[in-house]
Structure formats: C-alpha cells, structure tokens
Amino acid sequence: MRLRASSLPILRNCPGYASLPDEPEGDGTDYASEGTARHAGIAALLMGEPIPAELTPTQAADAADAVDWLPDDITDVTPLGVEMEHSAEIEGVTLTGHTDAEWQGLVLDHKTGGGQPFNLPPIEDDLQMRAYGWLAGEGGPITVGRYLTDVQRLDVLDLDEDGARENAEILADVVRFVRDHKGEFITGGHCLECYGRTRCDAYQARADLLPVLPRDRALTDSEASRALVALGAAKALVKRVEAELKEHARVTPIARDDGKVWAPSTYNTTRIKDGNAAFLRLYALNPNEALAVAKVAKGDVEAAVRRAGGDPDQVLAEMVDAGEAKTTETTSFRWRKA
Ligand code: SF4
Hints:
Elements: E1 2-4, H1 8-11, H2 30-46, H3 57-69, H4 72-75, E2 81-90, E3 93-103, E4 106-111, H5 127-136, E5 142-148, E6 153-159, H6 161-180, H7 201-204, H8 221-251, E7 254-255, E8 260-272, H9 275-285, H10 287-299, H11 301-307, H12 312-321, E9 325-337
Helix pairs in contact: 2-3, 5-6, 9-10, 10-11, 11-12
Iron/sulfur cluster binds near residues 185, 190 and 202.
C-alpha cells in the first residue's frame, strides 16, 4: 500500500480516500497553475538560478517577493535540493512525499492560495508537514517550515530527538488506522474539505438527506450541519454528472427533439489580471473614456479597448506580453442548432 503525505489529513478522517479512482487529467485550474508557477519561481531563486522564462512578470514578481520575505539565514544558504521526492516504509506502508526545498536540518513547504491561513490547521496538527519532517529527516530531528506565501507567514515545527520520536508515533498511528480500515469511507463534515468529493459515491449518497429536512420550522443545529454536508454532496454529484455529460457530448453531441444539440464550442478570451494596469492603459488611450470602461475592462478587454478608441489587437498583445492579461482557450457547452 502507498500513501501520499499530502493525503494524510483526509485519510485520518476517512481511510476510503486512498481507494478513490484517480482524478481525471486535464482538470487543472488557473489557480493551480498560478500555484505551480510560483513554486517554480521560488525554487529557481532559492537555488540561485534565473526565474523560468515561461513565468509572467506578475508571477515572477510574486515569487521574488516570497523569497525576499524569507529570513536571511534561510536564503543565504543554497538548499540541498528543491522539489525533492521521498519514499519510506512505515507500518508496512510506503509513505511518499514531495518537498519544496530542503537544507541541512530544515525542510520547507510553500503554500500558495487556497484561502490560507484559514483553511490550515496549526502546524503541530498538520499531518502533511509532520510527514515531510519524518521523510526529509529520515525519522531524526529536523525543523519543518510551512511558508504561507500569500500572507507571508512562516509556521515552524521544531522536532528534537523526543519530538521526532513522537512524530514517528503520530504518523504510525494514522498509517495503521488507514491500513486497517482500507476501503472504508467515513462521511462527515470533513468531506467538505476533501478534494475527492466529486469522485466519491459514499459522499454523494448523502445528497439523499436533503429532501427530509423540515420545512415547517427552524432547523436545529444538528439538522443544519447535516444539511450542509448533504448540500455539499449534492453539489459534488451535480459536478460529477455535468463532467460525465460533457465527456459524452465531446464525442456525441446530445440531441433534443427540436433538433438542437448540446455540444462544445471553443473560443479564446483575454482577461485582465491587474485592474489598475488596465485602467492606466485605457487612460493613456482616452482619459474621458477610461473611467467609463474601467469596470467593463476586467471582464472584456477587447470591448473596453475598442470603446476607448484603441486597436484591441495591439493593446491586448502588449498587455499579454507584460503579464497584465492572459489569453485562455475556453470550452463552453450550450444548446445550439445542429
Ligand atoms: S468525500 Fe468524504 S467519504 Fe468521500 S473520500 Fe472524501 S472524506 Fe471520504
């Protein structure tokens, strides 16, 4: 059995998570790729290398800010490595982990986005960080740093000899629990934090609880909390059905009696990432129009630039080059004539 360090916080509540089918590929969000870009930028800077050319100026600046903020006694020393893969046996299970950067006696994990710091437990309760400490320190003393790059906060867990021993016991307990309850799905409030909920039958079955809510009186606290889980389950179910329908429609458009079909269409959109930069560019084109179009510009740069009297192709290309706007290919599904 293999377990990923990053899955331990979910597995502690629900061993079944390890048995979920793999996530379909190609579901990467802008959010995830922003995080990946910042990680790549930070890794390069820590190693004293140039920032990868594919990062936009904004992403590069974010990465530089993140590294600038870190204490000098960390950044003055070149890491032993970045993006390091680990794997070790514990309780007959292979625990794997991917750490962001490591020095002698220190392992650092960078967190980007995701509502930090509110969605994270204190570092002492963060099993992912404990697992990184155990893996990178090979079970011995080590300092674990969790760097919240958005809010520039470094949480630290110092594991001395005793701490490292206790750490190994904590991890062994969780791994034993997961191993002994293999395939057992335990639903509850923790499902709302689970990345697997759109793939999880056990959780989605809880959508059945929605219709039994009383309509003639106020909900009790416990009913409200169960309803919240059921609502999350219903949303996960809808998302999954929608994804399956889209997959089907990509191959075979879904036909309606009136001859219309539900099928994908692909188009490019350019969206502004920085509202101030957009405003200044529009202001340079036409100060009188800039105020009027500034709001529109966030959603539809092309229309805004045209209204301000500029050449959309040229302005958009400049903004994309400067990292102020990003063009993405979007696929939307809609009913249209066959
Ligand atoms: S959604 Fe809930 S039941 Fe399903 S794998 Fe995640 S934590 Fe377990």
